[in-house]
Write a structure and sequence with these properties.
homodimer; alpha/beta; Rossmann fold; five-stranded parallel β-sheet; Acid_phosphat_B-like (chains A, B); Acid_phosphatase_pln (chains A, B); Acid phosphatase 1 (chains A, B)
Chain lengths: ~220, ~220
Amino acid sequence: MASPDACFCLSWRMAVEANNAQGWRTVPPQCVGHVERYMLGGQYGSDVAAVADQIAIYLGGSAAADGKDAWILDVDDTCLSNLPYYKEKHFGGEPYDSRAYVSWVLRGACPAIPQVLGVYRKLMERGFQVFLVTGRSEDVLGASTVENLAAQGFDGHHRLIMRSAAYRGYGAVPYKSTIRRQLVAEGYRIRGNVGDQWSDLLGECVGDRTFKIPNPMYFIP
Amino acid sequence: MASPDACFCLSWRMAVEANNAQGWRTVPPQCVGHVERYMLGGQYGSDVAAVADQIAIYLGGSAAADGKDAWILDVDDTCLSNLPYYKEKHFGGEPYDSRAYVSWVLRGACPAIPQVLGVYRKLMERGFQVFLVTGRSEDVLGASTVENLAAQGFDGHHRLIMRSAAYRGYGAVPYKSTIRRQLVAEGYRIRGNVGDQWSDLLGECVGDRTFKIPNPMYFIP
């Protein structure tokens, strides 16, 4: 067995990914080094690749039957990585800092998560309507998000749905549920739904399958 | 980073616990040794303890308001462990063997999972109605299950609900959803729901919070 701290931190991370640990505000202090090694040492990349593999297994040889077969992908730490930002924030060991975070996003410098970009390209090739659904504020972060996604290869998608003023103050579950309900009302069949937060994947109209991308750095209720 | 196999097996196990990997019939061959070390080397026990800790955080100082505040616990590999049986089945490296499994359960020799027994006792002390809900066949396994639970300290619960003939052939999600819906119709408020399979925790009336106990040895759809 690993050292007591490594053992505890592995268990904590597992509790996060299985949605047993909720409402946490920072990574436990004794796990900051563990999360750093996880994110930078290769295991995180392997874990994301494993999710991409499961999506590939689920897809098999299938393609969109028509223009109503849809997938939903979250943006932050699903398509685009905030890891360069969190490196400066002790990998989640510091509480959320909205001003610094907005400055970071406005730079439009988030790199693609390559395994998810692979999933995205496959979905596009197969003719699925891909919706990128994000809690980012449309007013403040719209332009930088559009630019960042395009620069990182997330182009040609059906629709980018950002948080409009009407949804300000909504929690992620009711906001994203409302968006998905609208898509279903438009006749879309949500074949899959990918996010790094359980709040992307719970609520209404979650889709035929959901896929949780690992993220031990922060929790969005 | 760990060896390529260890890295892959950690990712596979994470994919199982986050419900990304579904419908698998055996542990991947290259991960049988990994799962053995996980189950016997201390990390599994630490992971179960982390879930129990999260339940304790969720409970806080709360107690049942009246006789309708309920919790649901699954039996196999939630309250009672089948690890002694799976030791003989390559820790899930062999496909499910219903005849051997029934023989094992008829012995009534499953040990309690101590961290879950601790949760159980706390829930009983706090006055919650605890329902043990299992897919085990009532006709075949009823007597041995009742005896095994009592011998391992799971006594005094409100009701043990086993699969009656009426539910033969039901999948776990519709079977357990139907049971939970009936409990809600009786006026129970399901405050929490604990199981080692996602099929214990998805569907209808899942409860205010669900808790996933780790299990990398088998998958029940």
